[in-house]
Design brief:
The complex is a heterodimer of chains A (266) and B (166). Chain A has 266 residues and is α+β, with helices and mostly antiparallel strands. In chain A, the strands form four sheets. A five-stranded antiparallel beta sheet of chain A has the order 4-5-10-6-7. A four-stranded antiparallel beta sheet of chain A has the order 11-12-13-14, with helices on both faces. Chain B is α+β, with helices and mostly antiparallel strands. Chain B folds into two domains: 76 residues, Ubiquitin-like (UB roll) (Roll); 73 residues, Orthogonal Bundle (DNA polymerase, domain 1), CATH 1.10.150. In chain B, strands 2-1-5-3-4 form a five-stranded mixed beta sheet, sandwiched between helices. Classes of the chains: A alpha+beta (266), B alpha+beta (166). The interface between A and B is medium-sized, with 29 and 31 residues. The structure holds flavin-adenine dinucleotide and FE2/S2 (inorganic) cluster (2 copies). Flavin-adenine dinucleotide binds next to strand 2, helix 2, helix 6 and helix 7 of chain A.
Chain lengths: 266, 166
Amino acid sequence: MFHLTYHRPTSVEDAIQFFTNSEDAQFLAGGQTLLPTMKQRLADPSDVIDLRHIAALAGIGSAKDHLSIGAGVTHAEVAASPQVRQILPALADLASHIGDPHVRNMGTLGGSVANNDPAADYPAAVLALDATIHTNSRVIAAEDFFTGMFETALQDGELIIRIDFRIPQIAAYAKFPNPASRYAMAGVFIARHTDGGVKLAVTGAGSDGVFRHKDMESALLGNWAAEALADISIDDSNLLSDIHGSAAYRANLIKVMAQRAMQSML
Amino acid sequence: MIKVSMTVNGGAVSHTVEDRTLLVDYIRDHLRLTGTHIGCDTSQCGACVISFNGKAIKSCTMLAAQADGAEIMTIEGLADGDQLHPVQAAFKEHHGLQCGFCTPGMIIAATDMIKRYGAALDEPTIRTELEGNICRCTGYQNIVKSIKAAAEDMTRSEKPSVTSSV
Ligand SMILES: Cc1cc2nc3c(=O)[nH]c(=O)nc-3n(C[C@H](O)[C@H](O)[C@H](O)COP(=O)(O)OP(=O)(O)OC[C@H]3O[C@@H](n4cnc5c(N)ncnc54)[C@H](O)[C@@H]3O)c2cc1C
Ligand code: FES
Ligand code: FES
């Protein structure tokens, strides 16, 4: 942070160019993760490339079967968007519970997904809504995108442009927020898709970050009701255990959040 | 070094600063507007909240360079001469502060939520909207009371049909 150089490109091409020409650059979107990390000296980029003035990263649009959100769209914009609230209310609801109003005014979809914090909310929606991540060079399926805690399939210098979410028949998200930070201790996003398939993704609890829970998915496929989850036991061997809660506690939270998400839909 | 220019509380300012300068440090150290406070280094307390292009943000979590070209308002820009802003007046009237450290951020956050919710701003909403502003003194009771009173005061002149401006 001591010898930082700031850049403000207005096109994707220029952003990539700045990245390529820098020694150790980082994209800077809302800065709500990167700047606190730099202040703690946990990140020390030589250059930051501000993404907030690139038009291609802005905007929300929809087609027949998907909702498309620019990587630079803020949590506040998603939460307030009439389009998102109408087509995918679960996503607007998720965005409206990220952090606090000031964080939501800056933090972006692209930044959250690129960062893949194991306690972040958006990754659960990306996975359960079968999203595709569109970058400057390719399209990545959600299934292939999240590769571990703070790890994604993104290459060095690869820029997320937008994310397309498949529009489900119905969906809901329930999270148990950490009382101090508001990050998820456990968050469960459930979607029933138009082809009848069910996807259920869990964030906040996994040691490797967000994951799908196939047993709960099959249970809901058989019986679309909160009760269908009553007898499921959640294996806690690969769950986070920290000062906020043990793995066993989180295992129970996952089930409770999944049931709450179901109850909110029925 | 980088040249930054912006509008602060209605006036144009321009300085050359280090690229790594945080907006809050620019406001406090370069502009000498020390009403904006720094209460943490984890982006959680909200003492540094200012209005940036009309939206409340944490000025400790933005570079001054990012604000180049922006319009910002700090607590110093709220009053009209000797005439306190209705939110300031309500905090005074309802004892919405004790030590006052959190107050500038609280007041900017309050004006932001009143702008978004208008007359629909009820107590539970105020409490969830204050998620990003920590107060170590008051227990929040009188802060909530002050914001509620200010919202009522500021929306009294609105037509009754206006219930929300989200
Ligand atoms: C007090 C506080 C509370 C919070 N609470 C929550 C919460 O409850 N839930 C939650 O999910 N999050 C929470 N967050 C995190 C917040 O949502 C961040 O906004 C988000 O994680 C990162 O988004 P950003 O736009 O700020 O990214 P930045 O901080 O700017 O960037 C983060 C990382 O992503 C990279 N990046 C950014 N954009 C792109 C792109 N388009 N393509 C490729 N790489 C990119 C950057 O290079 C950087 O490495 C909280 C943050 C704070 C400060
Ligand atoms: S100083 Fe604490 S949030 Fe900015
Ligand atoms: S009045 Fe002291 S911190 Fe709020």
